[in-house]
Amino acid sequence: MPELIYYVAASLDGYIATPDGGVEWLNAFTGEDYGYDDFYASIDAVWQGRATYQKCLEFPAWPYPGKSSVVFTHAQLASERDDVRFTDESPTAELARARRHRWQRIWLVGGGGLATACRDAGVLSEYIVSLIPVVLGAGIPLFARGGTIEPLTLTDTRHWKNGVVQLHYRRAREP
């Protein structure tokens, strides 16, 4: 079964973006790798929601070169990119498709609604959350409201001099 990893940066108060989807608040924390290159090399594909995908289109360059991207949306969207596919299937159905592609590790980029849908479906295997020492006060939350409770096991922590703390969790094993 492919692993689905929610690898994300969040403000101390639990937001992954400003209310308008902005991530400029992360600019003050660039220059450090935070393990990103090794993580990116370890994944086969990227999952994201519509709003995250549309935000990526505003960047000067496509942020996921060399990786297949699956965009979860009910909107009728099109892309000129060969490596982007749109779906309105469930995370469970898409994970079955990922297995047929022989993908081993998939990065759930965002957003919070898709992360909640994946958590509720029981398909998230890891959570790697980099807590950024910023309080946004409002924005797009790490997870949408509601959802199921999921016990986690802390497997690693890392911290940097600039105050960033990275927490790595796996789903707790069923008793």
Give a quick summary of the entry:
With 175 residues, this protein is α/β, with parallel strands linked by helices. It has four helices and ten strands. It has one domain: Dihydrofolate Reductase, subunit A, CATH 3.40.430.
Entry keywords:
globular, 175 residues, Dihydrofolate Reductase, subunit A, two-stranded antiparallel ribbon, 32% strand, single chain, alpha/beta, eight-stranded mixed sheet, 10 strands
Describe the structure.
The protein is α/β, with parallel strands linked by helices and 175 residues long. The protein is built from 4 helices and 10 strands. The chain has a single domain, classed as Dihydrofolate Reductase, subunit A (3-Layer(aba) Sandwich). 20% of the residues lie in helices and 32% in strands. The strands form 2 sheets. It has an 8-stranded mixed sheet. A two-stranded antiparallel sheet has the order 2-8. Strand 3, helix 2 (50-56) and strand 4 (68-72) form a beta-alpha-beta unit. The mean pLDDT is 94.
Total count of strands: 10
- The CATH superfamily is Dihydrofolate Reductase, subunit A
- What number of structural domains do the residues give? 1
The low-confidence runs, each spanning 5 or more residues with pLDDT under 50, are none
Q: Enter the CATH topology name.
A: Dihydrofolate Reductase, subunit A
Approximate shape: globular
What gyration radius follows from the Cα positions, in whole Å?
A: 16 Å
Can you give the mean pLDDT? 94
The span between the termini is 20 Å
User: Could you give the order of strands across the largest sheet?
Assistant: 5-4-3-6-1-7-10-9
H-E order: EEHEHEEHEHEEEE
